[in-house]
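Input.
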Amino acid sequence: MRRSMDPLDPILKHHGFKENPFSPFAIRANVGIIRLASSHRTQGRLELLVNGTWGTVCGNVSWGIEEARVACRMLDLPNATQAVTGGLFGPGEGPVLFSEFQCTGTEQSLLDCPREDSIGCAHAQDAGVVCGDPKDDVFLVGGLTPNQGNVIVLLNGTFGAIHGVGWDREDADVVCRMKGLPRASNIVKEAFFGVQYGMRTLLNDVQCLGNESSLFDCPMKTEVIEHGLPAGVVCGNLE
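Output.
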């Protein structure tokens, strides 16, 4: 029997995800599997999952802005601002999978682009990307009204919650500001708004001052926790 609809399902489908693809890595419908190896959500070394094995892409002279645009599209991030070559984000592990990409920049997946299996390309040449920061990457889910709910983030193409430990009014105020809502009237912890099906927490120990324009401007730790209790917020009056 199919489970009842999760509150996050419409958001997932809007961003092109299959239903509840909660894992440490981004899994998008019909475009393969990709991740950024980085502590930053919009830039890092590019890695692909091919035949069950994670590997990197050769960042030689063929890796350009067209290829980076396709990679950012796969990650569900805004358009690429830079194609990174020469292993700038550090060497990866596993095989160097592909080289000599010839993307036009309009493809939905790097696997749609002409390319060659990599031969002789070392991890010192691993490719990376810098994608523009997404503007709509924080959601309130599970509340009775749009101004309340668990705080869900879209990080490196993966949806996840924020661990409630250390969550305070300053952190909540920044989330409300991002959503264009009044300041927080209440902060909630320990899954007050429930736990979304299959959800992991991706961030913890958020330490906002309260005047930041984005939650991602605040010091925080990026860490996957399987059964963390999510933080939530009520912005404005409790309705």
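Confidence is low (pLDDT under 50) at residues 1-6, 15-31.
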